[in-house]
Amino acid sequence: MTVTCRFILFRVAPAAALAVLVGPAGAHKDPVTPQQLSTYQQVFMEQVRKGDLLFHGDAATEKEMAVVLSNTGMACAMCHPMTADTHPATFPKYQVQMAKFATLRDMINWCIEKPNQGEKIADDSEAMKALEAYIYWSQSGTVLNPGKF
Amino acid sequence: MSELDKVRREMAAVLQQPGVRPDPSLRITRRTFVHKSCLVGAATVAETFAWWPLINTLDIAHAAEAPFKFAWISDTHLYPRSLNTRFVEKTMRAAKEVQAMSPPADFLIFGGDLAQLGKVEELELGVEILKEVNIRKVYIPGEHDWYLDMGKKWGELFGQPHWTFDHKGVRFVGLDTVSRGPDYWTAKKMSPEERMGHMATLDGTVAGPWAGVGRDQLDWLQKTLANWDRNRPVIIFSHNPLYEYYPPWNFWVRDWREVNEVLKPYTKVTNIHGHVHQVLYNEIGTMRSIGMLATSWPWPYAPEGVPKLTKPMIRVDPGDHFDGVGWEKIDVSAQDKVDVEYVMWRKQVLAQSPDDYAKSIPEVLRPRVADNMWPY
Question: Is residue B276 within 8 Å of B305, Cβ to Cβ?
């Protein structure tokens, strides 16, 4: 028997068996409470709410978040009621208008800059995360279909 | 079964009785053609994308006494010129093209939503632009024209929101489908601007099912049609479609059952409507219904309820603000034909393959939430 085989037989195998019996140390955590679930959901829905307001051109929310998403009076929802035809589930994909492989965030910024003639927002900005939260939440029953034209 | 499914089943049971449809002499054909400006080789780049229209040919027995044309423009959604020049530019283009029709149209029907937020300056801007059109003009209101001052300025400019006239053997009726919305503002003490803001949001949840004809107007419609031969053509203009397509966006009138009761005896009813900003065709009972393009921007097709008879329009390029929009010519011929021509400012009008149709990628959508949270 080689040294490697002995090592596996006498050291690794018992440890693995023990791990199966007690479960991995990293997975051991306190059970989630209804209060925690409620908090997590509230954090998420607050982003959805903000994103919904931005998507619908709410001036107060734009001011509060220091963004200018449109200079034409147009809001995202005017072409995309209930986020229709935003197709978030198809990203990332080759986006014809930009002639590049693009993410949903790229597309949001393209719409802000082109049809809306507004000011581009940072990819990791609070406004971008809120818009993304709203769009995904609104389409949460849609099947993922990345890459689809 | 969802509420919407129940309504759809009821509608099918009420309206789609065996053998009931618009007059059997109706034949529908569709063709596209290349406009002559593109054939002579003199077209500029801008012209290349103009005038590639679609003809919907609808043959009607016993139609006009003499051939004539009329034009439809709607849904210009004008903001003040200082804020948005694109919508102004497109309205001006439509007006100029209607005026240039040869032979000229007998009249122009403006199908509502002249203004975006109902402001005096928006409505007056519309009047000023439409002065380009020198033929007779008739108007019906859209919700965007109405809910800032409850139709005061619109009435001063255009008069009664519903009306009728006979023209060369066709009875025309203009309906007001916007002014009878349930009061969502008084209890919440909304300002006129807030009231307008909710009404101006297509996917809003506050204004509710505002589109309707109303009992009083239905009675008027019944009286108006009472002395009209049931086999002669009736063309009804309305801002909203007179059937149920997608209630959450008010792509309907809530009293479509009553409308159908009034129109049922008439075999050749054509409803031409705005509001949907898209190519749309449907037959409901004995009435056929045709949706018109906006000049401002195209709406996507609703997530469900698109009539099966509609050949969908092509996916729009959001980078081209002249795409997916336009106006319409309606040609009533002595050979008993009514042609509706979509003058879309783009090369292709209809989807050429499933990939050209946005709804070929299924979406499951939720209504918005923020307009039902504090402080609304």
Answer: no
